[in-house]
User: Which sequence fits this backbone?
């Protein structure tokens, strides 16, 4: 049985990806920052109901040594790591003029350094396997910028560069690395936006609706599948036609 590790998967897009990959037949290694994220949460039950194994691995993905230990633990539990989805991410929004150093550094650590940490240690496992799929969560903010998100859009643009670099470094080992760039998707992260911000987004979306988490999970499932075996270093925008 193949195994998928999804970071930040207690809720939101990560949980939807984990459930979709479970339906595709993968054993699932969930991750989130604390045990509390899994309290009053039925994601593990839902995944196990698909007939696959599921375990949670608590770690802060911005912490290099915690990630190293976590990857060892996932490998020890499941034997292989076939799919890595770098999904964990945060926002600490504010206009540049008022953004603090702490706000900037925190988002870089969680959204960007995490991708280095995880890709390095899981990539080492995949290189020995001579196969693997790495899928990174970028954002339209990384492609086009977004006022109030200098920190966040910097990390999401960086993830696109990291995706292409990993694709080039690991391609000869049978490992692909791609990114998805979601637009406005209904999750606890976007619940924080004001009505005015939401209306402004909607006006620009060709499909005149927000995306659902399952619509991100479906594209991730494709990128993890055999059908995507010759797709690498690509960024797939999933935004209902936000910019064209
Ligand atoms: P969310 O806030 O609902 O879920 C993020 C998960 O990551 C949470 O469970 C959180 O506890 C976990 N997490 C945060 N810091 C962590 C850390 N240091 N270590 C481990 N886990 C950590 O967010 P959502 O909306 O599901 O976003 C998932 C990904 O999709 C993020 O990378 C986000 O930037 C990206 N994205 C989301 C969009 C949206 O409209 N919701 C649009 C574009 C990209």
Assistant:
């Amino acid at each position: 049985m193949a195994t998928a590790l999804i970071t930040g998967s207690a809720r939101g897009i990560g949980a939807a990806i984990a459930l979709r990959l479970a339906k595709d037949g993968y054993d699932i290694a969930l991750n989130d920052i604390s045990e509390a994220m899994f309290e009053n949460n039925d994601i593990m039950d839902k995944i196990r109901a698909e007939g696959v194994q599921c375990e949670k691995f608590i770690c802060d993905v911005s912490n290099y040594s915690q990630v190293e230990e976590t990857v060892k633990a996932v490998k020890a539990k499941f034997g292989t790591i076939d799919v890595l989805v770098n999904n964990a991410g945060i926002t600490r929004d504010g206009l540049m003029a008022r953004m603090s150093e702490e706000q900037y550094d925190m988002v870089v650590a969680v959204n960007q350094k995490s991708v280095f940490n995880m890709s390095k240690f899981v990539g080492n496992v995949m290189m020995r396997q001579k196969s693997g799929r790495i899928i990174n969560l970028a954002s339209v903010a990384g492609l086009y910028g977004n006022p109030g998100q200098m920190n966040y859009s910097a990390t999401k643009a960086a993830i696109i560069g990291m995706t292409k670099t990993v694709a080039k470094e690991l391609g000869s080992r049978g490992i692909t690395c791609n990114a998805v760039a979601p637009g406005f998707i209904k999750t606890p992260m976007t619940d924080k936006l004001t009505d005015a911000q939401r209306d402004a987004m909607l006006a620009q979306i060709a499909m005149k609706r927000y995306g659902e988490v399952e619509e991100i999970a479906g594209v991730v499932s494709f990128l993890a599948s055999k059908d995507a075996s010759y797709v690498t270093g690509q960024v797939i925008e999933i935004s209902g036609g936000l910019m064209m």
Observations:
- Residues 101-129 form the longest helix (29 residues).
- The radius of gyration is 17 Å.
